[in-house]
Amino acid sequence: MHTRPISRPATTPVQTTTAAAKARFWNRVARKYAADPIADVAGYETTLKRVQALLSPEHTVLEIGCGTGTTALRLAASTRRMLATDVSAEMIAIAREKLASQPLAKLRFGVADAETAALGGARHDAVLAFNVLHLVSDLDLGLQAILSTIKPGGLFISKTPCLAEMNPLIPRLIVPLMRALGKAPHVLVFDTAQLRSAFERHGFAIEAVERHGTKRKDIRVFIVARRP
Ligand SMILES: C[S@@+](CC[C@H](N)C(=O)[O-])C[C@H]1O[C@@H](n2cnc3c(N)ncnc32)[C@H](O)[C@@H]1O
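Predict the joint structure of the above. Result:
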């Protein structure tokens, strides 16, 4: 049972943040984000291998918060077809540029807010969310919307920074300061236990909880869950 509330900055409204407001920060930083190298290549490759092993050529797959599409471009070949979405039109523009230079018939990119229940309309065999669940306005609303996009028996595969597992000065002081300066997005602060509880509240059956980082302490938890 979930006992501790998931904390968010006092100034962050719940359910009132529009997709446009959410996109504003990410549109602004998209080109820089695209240029930044992956911080832990070995950890990233472990995650990719793990996800590839869970996917099958029969699966239709939805990725939410796909950013500039790097992961979708690596995973689409392991699926029947893949739709990768992001709230930021600029991120999707970059993803489409990459797709144009390495065409993959199975992959499409689209702009969508992961917190909208209508997300994509269709239900998928697997939904992927990497480095995005801490960015939604409300974790429960986000998980509810995600659940509605997964077929019964389908998979939800995520990797999420649990900011409550960092030095508390970072989420409590440095992130709000950076946010005030427009240099950080809105974030939710939770730990792995709170994230697991949220999954379970929404009826997900958790099948694996792992860490793939190879550098220092890894606050990003990889969770494989199934919609019963
Ligand atoms: C930290 S980046 C991660 C990108 C990519 N998944 C990765 O692991 O490199 C977070 C991404 O989530 C997107 N995002 C944030 N809030 C979102 C929301 N409510 N719905 C969909 N995408 C969202 C941002 O636009 C950004 O591209």
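The longest strand covers residues 150-161.
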